[in-house]
Amino acid sequence: MTDPDVSVVVAVYNTMPYLTECLNSLVGQSIGVDRLEVIAVDDGSTDGSGAELDRFAAEYPGTVKVLHQENSGGPAAPSNRALEVATGRYVYFIGSDDYLGPEALQRMVECADKHGSDVVVGKMVGTNGRYVHQALFKKSDPDVSFYDSALPFALANTKLFRRALVEEHGLRFPEDLPVGSDQPFTIEACVRARKISVLADYTYYYAVKRGDASNITYRANHLSRLRCTAAIMRHASSLVAAGPQRDALFKRHFTWELAKLIQDDFPTLDPGTQREVCDGIATLADDYLTDELRDSLDVTRRVRICLAQVGAVDELVRAITEEAGHGAPPFWIEDGRAFAMYPGFRRAAPRLPDRHYELVGESVAGRLAQGTELVDAEWDQSGDDLHLVLTARVGVLGDTGSLTVRLAKGAMPKSADKPGARRLPVGHELSLPEGEFTLAVSGDGQATTVRGRIPVRAAKAKLGVRLYVDVAGSTYEIPVKTGGEPLPLARRWRQAVPYRVSANQNPKGRLVITTAPLWEIKPGAGKRLRHMLSRLKRKVTR
Questions:
Q1: Are 300 and 260 in contact (CB under 8 A)?
Q2: 3-class secondary structure, 459
């Protein structure tokens, strides 16, 4: 009997009933059971998973191989044991609560054979609320760089690996890491691979979040996750020299693993644990957070990590709780630069450089939309002249002279729906604003209020009420949401040709001004009227 094309490793611990779907997806692969080897290691399950494995082994002899062992505390030991007996040209790892698309293995093996790939990554999706980073799967690519792609954000071992590469370098999973034990294996395989391929043309892998969220990643505590992340980064640093490539890899760990330790649940930790978490982050930041890597982080993560790095636990707690309770802080605009006014900004202690708080090449449309709200709106009419008088609050301070209100034609692009605002394209030029504007700092000192008196033209139109402001070299367009504030009543204006104006909330909650003639003559009605009058005139003169 020839060796199989692929050995699928399944580390199993108490994953019923998900395990059944996982195994069915393997034995039902289009590659065929004769080209497939499933090595399932029961890591001391107590829920019937072991018996389910034995059932499949009896039904598919020669294809499904089952090993039983005492519980080891994680997937590393059973995965290593499976590697010891694997015979396939390739090896693939799958979580025992996940499942594959029917053609997954065949497609990946064909790709590896065609392109000489040592690693093949098939498109993964999450189910039942499981998050899977999607940036890597925008398109298929037979030769992907580990450092110039989103691959560092997809370090799970759920990939096809050439087994010769695994054995040549003695790749195994560290058994002392309860969380992230697949990362050292995957990182080293990708560093040493001659070619890595990505397949985005098919859904290869379905990652399942269990209904009870009992996946080990969700159960680990802060200090355990910190210890595991530190071990992963130390191992990676031994493989990748300091420089842009290491920065590209470690951007994942600073924006994901470490940043997740200082999210909304951090303030609920006891003070001792808070201090330990900050000390651990500080050690890793001192060793690996270069200036270039720090500047590449979004401002929220950057500020939090830098506050942890200098041991400013109280300010870090404030930054997290204030943002959770009141939204993003205002921006300070100065000399064409913008800074997020998190705790510690321009304070004697902790004295962090302004650069740590600066917006560096990132879009802040969502933050601006979050900090923008309608204060009041009314009509100001004098004879045939009508103005919309509106006051809005915007979360910016400092050099806010660019802040204006405009009545804009056309709908906002759909890409602005999720953030609630948009950054205007480079080169987009706005016409001169119409009306009069007054700016003032809000009473709580956390925003700028703009009061605009804007002329309303006599025309048939539907106009969005939008704010425009320059932040860090870009102009942002922010539709004003009504926020439940009372709107002025519709009214009639002009005498000779009367018009109607109304202020309404559209289905997206945005303020829209609609103007139209009070009486509209339908197209062609004038011609028909003239024809009727002409006929009447002829009858009268007969």
A1: no
A2: coil
Angstrom distance (rounded) from CA 463 to CA 502: 11
Alpha-carbon distance of 304 to 35, in angstroms, equals 50
What is the CA angle 450-452-458, rounded to 5?
155
C-alpha 173/C-alpha 154 separation (Å) is 17
Q: Which residue has the tokens 């093996």?
A: 109
Q: Which residues make Cβ contacts (< 8 Å) with residue 190, sequence separation at least 6?
A: 119, 146, 151, 196
Report the SS3 class of residue 4. coil
Query: Which phi-psi region, left, alpha or beta, contains residue 52 (left: φ > 0; alpha: ψ -120 to 50)?
Result: alpha
Q: What is the tens place of the pLDDT at every residue in 340-382? A: 999 999 998 888 999 999 998 888 899 999 999 999 999 999 9
**Would the pTM count as exceeding 0.85?**
yes
What pLDDT digit, counting tens, does each position of 387-442 carry? 999 999 999 999 999 999 999 999 999 999 999 999 999 888 888 999 999 999 99
Length of the chain: 542
Which of 197, 190, 215 minimizes the C-alpha distance to 114?
197
Give the SS3 label for residue 360: coil
Inter-residue contact 364 to 476 (CB < 8 Å) = yes
Q: How far is CA 264 from CA 9, 168, 220, 225, 230, in A?
A: 36, 44, 16, 16, 21
| Cβ 435 vs Cβ 485: under 8 Å | no
Query: Does residue 488 contact residue 503 with C-beta atoms inside 8 Å?
Result: yes
219: pLDDT confidence band, cut at 50, 70 and 90? very low
Token reading at 128: 């039942």
Helices (H), 126-243: 163-168, 182-192, 216-219, 222-239
**How many helices (H) and strands (E) would you count in the chain?**
17, 24
Q: 72 near 175, Cβ under 8 Å?
A: yes
